[in-house]
Amino acid sequence: MKSVIIKTPATTANLGPGFDCLGIALDLWNELKVTEGDFSIEIEGEGVNQIPLDSRNLIVTGLEAVFNYIGKKPKKYSYICNNKIPFSRGLGSSSAAIVSGLLAGSVLSGANLDKETLVNLASEIEGHPDNVAPAIYGGFTIGLKEQNKWIIDEVSISKEVNAILFIPNFYIDTHQSRSNLPENISRSDVIYNIARVALLINSFNKQSFNLLNIATKDKIHQPYRSGNIPGYQSIVKGAIKGGANGVYISGSGPTIVAITRGKEVTVRYEMAEAARLSQVEGESIIVPISDTGAFIDSYE
Ligand code: HSE
Question: Which residues contact 191 (CB under 8 A, 6 or more apart)?
Fold first, then answer.
């Protein structure tokens, strides 16, 4: 194989209390074409002036990780990216880069790795599985590490569920944001989160969302991050007023996600209106859930 095109979805992680464990794939895609030849990286769309165009690029990290894993030396490749996933906004742009590089490496090396191996490699690079797992499997995933192995389990999610995103016009660096979180949390905060994760998973399993607004609350990261998102409280209130079932900070932010089943247009409007009244610039969009993860679009 000399050339491959990979498509990889955006993802929304944490869902409130499921810090570093829970994530959902969204129907919003980056496309990557990798071709054997002189090294170059071209980017069109999101992140065009931010993403490094050298070996620091996470696509290259992903591709080389596959070659390292199988003990082969990678050839030289050119990379063409058509990005639709907003960059550094809490929608899994880094994970999409890692996963697309891994999948491209898997095809071009002939290794044809299974999802389990891909998710292990991706989680080791990223450090946590909450974005990379749904980017690989699609849908709603729970990810955790047990004895040096990443375990992924899938939660059923109805096609009627949509995510309404408010994407502010500024970037948040995940590493920086994580470094501001406390290392230790109290037992009462742990209990607060455990109970809500259980409630959240149960809500999806029962397809009953009347407690989702309580289930998406959290004490591990949102209280420390929400202050960095202007208008956060108003946008959350707007979403609930519009009929959202639950609202949370997507990953490390700044995107705010409302989960809805119905009333999508009203929720989108209320979030955008709350942002406008708070003088926060950004975009509010309705995005369906994707039940498929990254895939090989074509190869030659
Ligand atoms: N779980 C991660 C975090 C997601 O909240 O920092 C962002 O990569």
Answer: none
How would you classify the pairing of strands 40-45 and 77-83? parallel
Please provide the size of the chain in residues. 300
Q: Are residues 134 and 168 in the same domain?
A: no
In a shared domain, residues 20 and 82: yes
Distance between Cα 90 and ligand 1 center (Å):
8
Predicted structure pTM score: 0.97
Please say whether the beta carbons of 261 and 106 come within 8 A.
Answer: no
Taking only the tens place, the pLDDT of each residue in 138-170 is 999 999 999 999 999 999 999 999 999 999 999
Residue range of the domain that includes 173: 162-288
254-280 average pLDDT score: 98
Please tell me the number of Cα atoms within 13 Å of 241 on its side-chain side.
Answer: 13
Helix, strand, or coil (residue 24): strand
Q: Probe ligand 1: pick from 91, 126, 128, max atoms within 8 Å of CB? A: 128
Q: Per-residue confidence at 107, pLDDT binned at 50, 70, 90?
A: very high
Identify whether residues 151 and 192 lie together within a single domain. no
Atom number in ligand 1 closest to CA 128? 1
Report residue 225 as tokens. 């991050």
**118 contacts 69 by C-beta, under 8 angstroms:** no
Same-domain check for residues 222 and 114: no
3-state class of 5 per DSSP? strand
- Output the CA 43–ligand 1 centroid distance in Å: 24
Instruction: Judge if 103 and 198 occupy the same domain.
Output: no
Give the tens place of pLDDT for each residue, 226-259: 999 999 999 999 999 999 999 999 999 999 999 9
Could you tell me the CA-to-CA distances from 85 to 185, 203, 254, 289 in Å, in that order? 32, 28, 14, 14
Indicate if 132 and 239 belong to the same structural domain. Answer: no
